From TrEMBL:
This is GNAT family N-acetyltransferase. CDD domains: NAT_SF. InterPro entries: GNAT_dom, MshD_Acetyltransferase. PANTHER family: L-AMINO ACID N-ACETYLTRANSFERASE (PTHR43617). Residues 1-165 form the N-acetyltransferase domain. PROSITE patterns: GNAT.
């Protein structure tokens, strides 16, 4: 599994991956991420900002096939505020539909966790839309513990963290 930094010219591909994910989620009757079907300016700006900060990555297999996309931050003031402990923050993890059900999301999270461990990071943190209980349970099954709730304009998010050993 290879993490490749995304460039600004790749913005349409990233937005398309988010749109496809939103459409899959909608088919499951879950009201989560639907803003990615026609993203507001602030969400597009959020992606551009992450790309400029070298926080967005394409995830490819060893043969160069695109598996998905993820944003990894070293600080997340919007969702978590200022924190004392060193942490890595996972956002916007999308796995292409053809890889669904094959454990790719779990493999990606474990790879991010390994990288964070080598960087002497104390926590791996992420959020999940509170309207998506299946996703929340998924993160809990991966060892993440509830750490709070964050209410933002577009939704309410359950915050999760996992101590890195």
């Amino acid at each position: 599994m290879i993490f490749i930094p995304i460039k600004l010219k790749d913005l349409p591909t990233v937005l398309n991956l988010f749109k496809e994910a939103a459409e899959r989620i909608h088919k499951m009757n879950i009201d989560h991420w639907q803003y990615w079907k026609n993203p507001p300016k602030e969400k597009i700006q959020w992606v551009k900002e992450g790309i400029k900060n070298k926080e967005f990555f394409f995830i490819e297999d060893t043969e160069g096939l695109l598996i998905g996309v993820v944003r990894i931050l070293q600080e997340d003031l919007r969702y978590w505020g200022k924190q004392k402990e060193k942490a890595s923050y996972i956002h916007s993890l999308v796995v292409q539909e053809k890889y669904n059900g094959k454990g790719m999301g779990t493999k990606i999270i474990h790879e991010i966790e390994k990288k964070a461990h080598y960087a002497n990071t104390s926590y791996l943190r992420l959020d999940a839309d509170a309207k998506n209980p299946k996703l929340c349970k998924y993160y809990e099954n991966l060892g993440f513990e509830k750490a709070g709730i964050k209410e933002l304009q577009l939704s309410t998010y359950q915050l999760y963290q996992k101590k890195i050993l």
